[in-house]
Amino acid sequence: MNKRITLADIAARTGFSASTVSMVLNNRPGSRIPEATAERVRAIAEELGYAPDRTARGLRTGRSEALGFISDEVTITRYASAMVRGILDAAEACNHAVLMAETDNHPRRLENAIRLMRTRHIDGIIVGLMRARQVDLPAGLGGLPVIIVNGKVDGYHAVLPDEYQAGLDAVNYLVAHGHRRIAFIGRAAVHLDPRVSWTIGRRISGIDTGMANAGLSFVHEVEGSDWEPELGYRGAAEIFDRGDITAIITANDRIAFGVYGVAQARGLSIPDDMSVLSFDDEQLASYVRPQVTTMRLPYLDMGQIAAELLFKQIAGEWCPTDSAEETLVRMPLVERSSVADLG
Amino acid sequence: MNKRITLADIAARTGFSASTVSMVLNNRPGSRIPEATAERVRAIAEELGYAPDRTARGLRTGRSEALGFISDEVTITRYASAMVRGILDAAEACNHAVLMAETDNHPRRLENAIRLMRTRHIDGIIVGLMRARQVDLPAGLGGLPVIIVNGKVDGYHAVLPDEYQAGLDAVNYLVAHGHRRIAFIGRAAVHLDPRVSWTIGRRISGIDTGMANAGLSFVHEVEGSDWEPELGYRGAAEIFDRGDITAIITANDRIAFGVYGVAQARGLSIPDDMSVLSFDDEQLASYVRPQVTTMRLPYLDMGQIAAELLFKQIAGEWCPTDSAEETLVRMPLVERSSVADLG
DNA sequence: TTGTATGCGTTATCAG
DNA sequence: CTGATAACGCATACAA
């Protein structure tokens, strides 16, 4: 039905040639075209509702103004999917299209996705991971600009949450609120393996440093690698049995959720009897009462920043080796109601 | 670096012409090419790692083998983002690319997204909504195949959860487990407005019909349009004060979450003292203990089905007016531990 | 059976 | 200042 409007159409209408029209519409520097001509061309283009055919342009220029986003399982994840939105927003702001694919952690699907995108001339790729860990990428993207979000791949620039700083901030917040006797749930040796997590080590290390800086050490610690509510149930039970602390730091919100359950079962009030400070800011954290004070994983910002970095790289304004191999994004402290001020 | 391999390259290597190579690789019907030739062409193509340039092909054929997915705020949503995965999976299975954009409910961004995709020659569009409601679409997509997921737009085919059946199933399940004295939380007149929700009316209607079929009516009802935990807190308090029911149907999981909170506070056991049956199957439903038995919103399937329908429509194998205006997708009952068998 | 010529809509080069 | 002309990589009608 709606036949496409092409350069030829507007050339015919104005009497100028297609190349002149093209020059006007792209206002190429160097060749100055009389304002009268330009004016007329622009008017007709506007009137006809001309929009350049990006695939034809891409074929000619070799640049598609499209980027690819490949993730392992970000869309299926509760909160990490915000990184998609961040990328989409940034891309739209630059009038770029976003091609998307998800691999579900299958190497074959990953190679598929890369090939599919390459044959479509994308200008660059963002690789996003659900959990920040070190992974490998196949060779198929030689020469293509690549940015990793929430993960680490050898040889590529990564955008990551600033977990160390967050650990520091968390402890400082507790200390500033008068807490001295603090417990921690969630330490586990397995998390130190970069293939398991590239960032949890930093989170813990920030927490440890924060404690040391304040001249404190944990009154009680519950180890555990499976950061689910069950760990919170078990951990809180152990800690409450001892009963000599004022605050618990939980390694993530799901553990905190378990702690809440035990507190409620024992008739303990959060934060009056016990403060809880957590990490991640899953939706969960704002469902429970009182809402959990937690260090937010800034997925939206990370996606946005990754896309902007990629655009710079494509434009040649920035080169990964210019700067640090990682861009760290601040994890804001979301202050809610689970931490008491002991004044 | 990696120069692209083109038809010309492989033509040069084999000695045949580009058109012959093209015919072989697309094994065009009609023109039979000797197996010897075909064999050789395929071998060289394989060896060189040839992959056709989809943008060039698209320019020539007018079909891009790419589809667009435009949503309001699906990626930012806890559970609806699974529909993205469904679309991605189906697209990959058909070797189609997916272009994605999100509007955040701004009409301007919607028109932007449509234009951006049209100039990229997508073959069709899927429009996805976070909450199933009736919306309008601008005129800009004349002639383009369109499927709506989790929403309703006049004149287009929609893929929706089968809420009526789910309501029926929910009540039947309760009745089959011996429940007769049942309460309900979540009815609200405002939800009957199709612009607010296209499906909640059916959910409620299914529930009502199920009750009527069993010769039952609700012992107690708590109305409320804001389906958040607070409504569960308030509703459960009211209901528990009366204390003469065996089961509560909550209109969604967040309300159920509130009910859980009150039950725990009052020392009531779920499901021993009180059964809970819910809707949606948010992540939340599997976090609480006991895990909630709930009617799942089948987002993954809906995305997949929408994409498959779109492909059929593009291929001309199916025309929206051929069949019903809606494709209803079954909402499975996820049986967990919140409903007691009164057998 | 295979090759040649042409066009898809742009942009870039180079004359005029 | 502007307009032919070629080329991007592919598919196809037609000629050989």
TrEMBL record, chains A, B:
One Pfam family cited in the UniProt record for this chain: LacI
One GO MF term attached to the UniProt entry: transcription cis-regulatory region binding
Domain HTH lacI-type: 5-61
Keyword Ribosomal protein in record: no
SMART domains according to UniProt: HTH_LACI
Matching InterPro entries: HTH_LacI, LacI/GalR-like_sensor, Lambda_DNA-bd_dom_sf, Peripla_BP_I
UniProt keyword annotations, A-Z: DNA-binding, Repressor, Transcription, Transcription regulation
PANTHER family in UniProt: HTH-TYPE TRANSCRIPTIONAL REPRESSOR PURR-RELATED (PTHR30146:SF148), LACI-RELATED TRANSCRIPTIONAL REPRESSOR (PTHR30146)
Protein name as annotated: LacI family DNA-binding transcriptional regulator
Source organism of the structure: Brooklawnia propionicigenes
